[in-house]
Amino acid sequence: MRSVFSSLNVSNKNNLTLTAQNARLDIIGELEAIVMYQNHFDATDDQDARKTIADIMEEEKVHVGQLFGLLFKLDPESKVQFEKGYTEFMQQD
Ligand SMILES: [Fe+2]
To answer: How far is the CA of 19 from the centre of ligand 1 (A)?
Structure first.
């Protein structure tokens, strides 16, 4: 049985749904990387390590944004729902 976290079959490279699903999986990968880098950042007092890890972690956050941009292009409904959720969050007390 295929894990949801494994790459999906890419037999039809023009399948927008499949590419959107892969973008979602890639977002998960970037978020997992951020969690890992944050843990490694917190685990050391070495300033060179902390500086390097912090720099890489920032890049991973940019990658999350890039992948959301891709996902929103492939699946505009995802953008609508994302913005709805963001707006609901911003309006809470
Ligand atoms: Fe990345």
So the answer is: 17
pLDDT in tens, the chain (93 residues): 556 555 555 555 679 999 999 999 999 999 999 999 999 999 999 999 999 999 999 999 999 999 999 999 999 999 999 999 999 999 998
**Tally of domains within the chain:** 1
User: 25 in a domain, yes or no?
Assistant: yes
| Ligand 1 mean position, distance from CA 63 (Å) | 5
Q: Work out the widest C-alpha separation in the chain, in whole angstroms.
A: 48
Query: pTM value?
Result: 0.83
Domain with 61, as residue range(s), is 16-91
The Å distance, Cα 52 to ligand 1 centre, comes to 14
User: What is the C-alpha separation between 16 and 76, in angstroms, rounded?
Assistant: 11
Residues with CB under 5 Å of ion ligand 1 are: 30, 60, 63
Instruction: Name residue 3's amino acid.
Output: S
